[in-house]
Amino acid sequence: IYHTQSREESVESITQRTFSGVEAFFEYKMPYKFTVSLTYNTIMVHKSTSPTRPYDIGYWVRGMISYSPVSRLNSSIIFNWREGSESLRVTRASLDQDLEVYRPEAYVGERLPTNIRSDVNVSYKEGIQNDARIILFASASNIFNRRNAIDFRYLPDYTQDGFSRFSGSVFYAGVMISWQ
Question: Which whole number is the average pLDDT over 32-50?
Fold first, then answer.
C-alpha cells in the first residue's frame, strides 16, 4: 500500500497529482525448476490539476512462469492485463476560416480499451574468464501482435478515426559481456 504526490512541469502547464495504490505479489517455486509469480496493482488518483487521470488504473495483473533447467539458462513467459488509460477525446471541432484548419473546442475524459500483452524471454550466461561472463539473450514482445490503444486518432476535421496503437510484435536478440 502506498500514497504519494507528483508534480510535472511543461511549457503549457504544471500538473500536480495525489495518488495511492495497492500492490499484491505472490510467487511459488515449483518442482522441476519452475517458478510462477502473479502481481496485482491498482492506482487511484485522488486529486489532480489535469482534466484526465492517465495514471488512474483500476487493475493491472502481471503473471510470469519461468523455467531454469540449469543455473545458466533461464526462460520465461510474461502476461500483462491492464485497464486502459484515461485520455481526452475531442467531441466538437470548428473550422478556423483564416487558417483553414479545424480546432478542437470540446473534450471529454474517456478510458481507452484494456491492454493485453504477452512476452517470451530466453537468456544463457556463461563464464568466459576469471571475472568476466557472456550473456546471450532473445526476446519477443507482444507475441500475439495485439493492437493495444495508446490514444484516440482523428481525421483532419477531428472526427474520430479509431486509435493510435502501441507497436506490434517486436523480436530482438543480443550478446552482453560483463566484468566484475
Answer: 80
Side chain identity, residue 100: E
Query: Whole-model pTM above 0.85?
Result: no
User: What radius of gyration, in Å, describes the C-alpha atoms of the chain?
Assistant: 22
DSSP secondary structure, the chain, as one string: -EEEEEEEE-SS-EEEEEEEEEEEEEEEEEGGGEEEEEEEEEEEEEEESSSS-TT-EEEEEEEEEEE-SSTTEEEEEEEEEEPPPEEEEEEEEEEETTTTEEEEEEEEEEEPPPEEEEEEEEEEEEE-SSSEEEEEEEEEESTT----EEEEEE-TT--EEEEEE----EEEEEEEEEE-
Angle subtended at Cα 108 by Cα 107 and Cα 111, rounded to the nearest 5 degrees: 135
- The x, y and z cell numbers of residue 178, run together, are 560483463
pLDDT at 43: 78
What backbone phi and psi angles, to 5 degrees, belong to 13? -165, 175
Distance CA 80, CA 62 (A): 5
Amino acid at 123: S
pLDDT higher than threshold 70 for residue 6: no
